[in-house]
């Protein structure tokens, strides 16, 4: 059975953890992650005391640290998925633009050949330019 002073200390540490989890600490700055140092400072006890006498609370603190790491990993994973999707879209766009460029290059080559053919006909001594009603 816990001594009255130990149960009070346990309660102070537990409440410190809860305040830090909710982002509403009274002693440490807001936004500080849940760690043994932050909990000890918030509860007004030493880190060694938490390590030595309160293994159940240590597990809860470690659990919060693991959750923060997991959350950070999940956020990075989501960003990676988004970047991969963007990359996939850009690769598809490159394929589309390459096809358009190739089609335009083919049309351009055809027009250049037609232009050379017509220029050759026009420069030929056997050809006379006919200017009909439209050309008058």
What does this structure look like?
This protein has 136 residues and is an all-alpha fold. The chain has one domain (8-122). It has four helices and no strands. The longest helix is centred in the middle third of the chain and has 69 residues, at 55-123. The chain is rod-shaped.
Detail the topology: elements first, then pairings.
Blueprint: H1 4-22, H2 36-43, H3 47-53, H4 55-123
Helix pairs in contact: 1-2, 1-4
N-to-C order of helices and strands: HHHH
Oligomer: single chain
Q: What level of helicity do the residues show? A: over 70%
Low-confidence stretches: none
Structural class based on helices, strands and sheet pairing: mainly alpha
* Biggest sheet character: none
Count of separate DSSP helical elements? 4
Estimate the strand proportion. under 5%
Q: What's the pLDDT, averaged over the residues?
A: 87
Number of strands: 0
Radius of gyration using CA atoms only: 39 Å
Summed up, the domain count is 1
Distance between the termini: 117 Å
> In one word, what is the shape?
rod-shaped
Pfam families: DUF6262 (PF19776)
Coiled coil: 66-117
Keywords: Coiled coil
